[in-house]
Amino acid sequence: MFRRFVAIVAFVALAAALTLVAWPQLLGLQRAPVLALAVSFRGAAAAAALAVAVVLTAVGLVLHRLRRGLGVLALLLVAFAAAEAGVLVVRGVGAPDVPVAQADDVTVLSWNTLGDSVPAQVVARAAAENRATVVALPETTEGRARQVADLLARQGSTYTVFSRSQQAGIPARSTSVLVSTALGRYREVTADGDTVGVPSVVLDPAGGQNAPRIVAVHTTAPYDLDPATWRSDLRWVAARCSERNVLIAGDFNATIDHLDGLGPAPGRLRTCRDAALATGNAAVGTWPTSMPALIGTPIDHVLATPNWRFTGFRVLSDDDAAGSDHRPVLARLRPAG
Question: CA-CA distance, 173 to 168, in Å (whole number)?
């Protein structure tokens, strides 16, 4: 009798734990230690749960005395995998069509280059092929960004380069942005502060033009036992969405789950909406490139205020061997109304 009671308690505890991993938002724990990492890899978690369920079922067929207990465990894991898969399907596993840009469109390319590991020619080619208006480059030095701009200038596209570094000599502690001169003049804003562990860049129009504020983001990864710095960085990013006309792009080190509670609805940072979620691509992983996209985690984003609508979004996987562990993301935006 006691053994049965202990088994029931164990099964209930496991069910509760799996529920929290599948939806930590139930208790507001999506940015809590451990759970913040556990919820990041929904595709991998679903695949692992199914694999373990198959093994438990096979063992139960051989060891008849354990069949009931192993069967219950297998059912719990299958339910967990189904829940994870359901979330991924709802968020979108890929609607990658990006329409041809129109005159007023803005195209944003964001690529964490892993400390200048991606050659300038590869970044320039991606920007040119997709007619990028804004190129956000976390973990990219000013020197590499200028190389990219020079290559694009030879093709007839001119960009202004902005860059910030928090530690000279370490490329991973830099963030750079290229802004097409077609958007007009821009200036860097420092009064808004910065993300803590790695830099972000805030740009405002400087020529009186009706153009968006541009924020290139890189937040600290939530690897610490208590990722307080990461949570602070996400709050800083959310605060940048207090303006009426904002585009934000970069490596958030956060999925849609982690953004819950920082805005009025899922995929919102205050008034900013997520391009991947709006276009049915929010389950497509951007990191790491060593994993298939549907197994990886979607932590690179493009967001915008409601005066913009997303006409397309795509996670670019053609350059998985270019040197970075991140896939670039591309979003095309059009003025709303």
Answer: 8
- What angle, rounded to 10 degrees, do the helices at 2-22 and 67-91 form? 10
The arrangement of strands across the sheet holding 106-110 comes to 159-165, 174-180, 134-138, 106-110, 329-335, 308-315
In angstroms, the CA 304 to CA 286 distance is 19
Instruction: Give residue 265's pLDDT.
Output: 86
Average pLDDT (259-283) is 93
Sequence ranges of the domains in the chain: 2-91, 106-335
Second CATH level (architecture) for the domain 106-335: 4-Layer Sandwich (3.60)
pTM: 0.95
**What pLDDT, on a 0 to 100 scale, did the predictor assign at position 209?**
87
Residue-level pLDDT at 33: 94
64-78 burial by CB neighbour count: b if 16+ within 10 A, else e? eeeeeebebbbebbb
Instruction: Mention every residue, 6+ apart, whose C-beta is less than 8 A from residue 210.
Output: 245
Average pLDDT, the chain: 94
Both tokens of residue 230? 């990461």
pLDDT reading at 133 higher than 90: yes
Q: How far is CA 294 from CA 47, 212, 236, 250, 288, in A?
A: 10, 32, 29, 20, 11
Residue 212, preceding bond cis, omega within 30 degrees? no
Backbone angles phi, psi at 303, to 5 degrees: -125, 160
Instruction: Give the model's confidence band at 96: pLDDT under 50 very low, under 70 low, under 90 confident, else very high.
Output: confident
User: Coil, strand, or helix at residue 37?
Assistant: helix
Residue ranges of E strands in the chain: 106-110, 134-138, 159-165, 174-180, 186-188, 201-205, 213-218, 246-251, 268-269, 272-274, 300-304, 308-315, 329-335
Half-sphere exposure of 143 (CA within 13 A, CB side): 9
| pLDDT(86) > 80 | yes
Count of Cβ atoms closer than 10 Å to residue 63 Cβ: 11
